[in-house]
Amino acid sequence: MTYLEVAFHYQSQPGERELRALDSVREVYGIQRTQFSEKEHIVRVLFDASRLNEDAVASLLRQAGLDLTDRLTLV
After folding, report:
1. At the N or C end, where does the chain have fewer CB atoms within 10 A?
2. Which residues, other chains included, contact 44 with Cβ-Cβ below 8 Å and sequence gap of 6+?
3. Under DSSP, is residue 69 helix (H, G, I), strand (E, B) or coil?
4. Residue-wise over 44-67: b if at least 16 C-beta within 10 A, else e?
5. DSSP states of 4-36
6. Rounded Cα–Cα distance for residues 74 and 44 (Å)
């Protein structure tokens, strides 16, 4: 397994409905961890790159109702 981390900016704080949907994203095989920085409006996701790619992770987050604006470059 190869783990990668991706980070995205999002616009508005997730509400109760979005948080419930994000719980189901955590159950997707290959997603290891999701972490929010509410102050900076950033979500970080650790995932198994042999199962998923960054576009698939972004799609899962959008389907959960998160309004992603851009992907951040992690160094």
Report:
1. C
2. 5, 6, 7, 33, 34, 35, 36, 37
3. strand
4. ebebeeeebebeebbebbeebebe
5. EEEEEEESS---HHHHHHHHHHHTSTTEEEEEE
6. 10
For every residue of 33-46, DSSP letters joined together read: EEEEETTTTEEEEE
Is-above-0.85 flag for pTM? Answer: yes
pLDDT tens per residue across span 25-48? 888 999 999 999 999 999 999 999
Query: Using the 8-state DSSP alphabet, how is residue 52 labeled?
Result: -
What type of residue is 15?
Answer: G
Residue with tokens 């899962």: 60
3-class DSSP assignment, residue 71: strand
Helix H or strand E segment including 72: strand 68-72
Taking a C-beta distance cutoff of 8 angstroms, is the pair 43, 34 a contact? yes
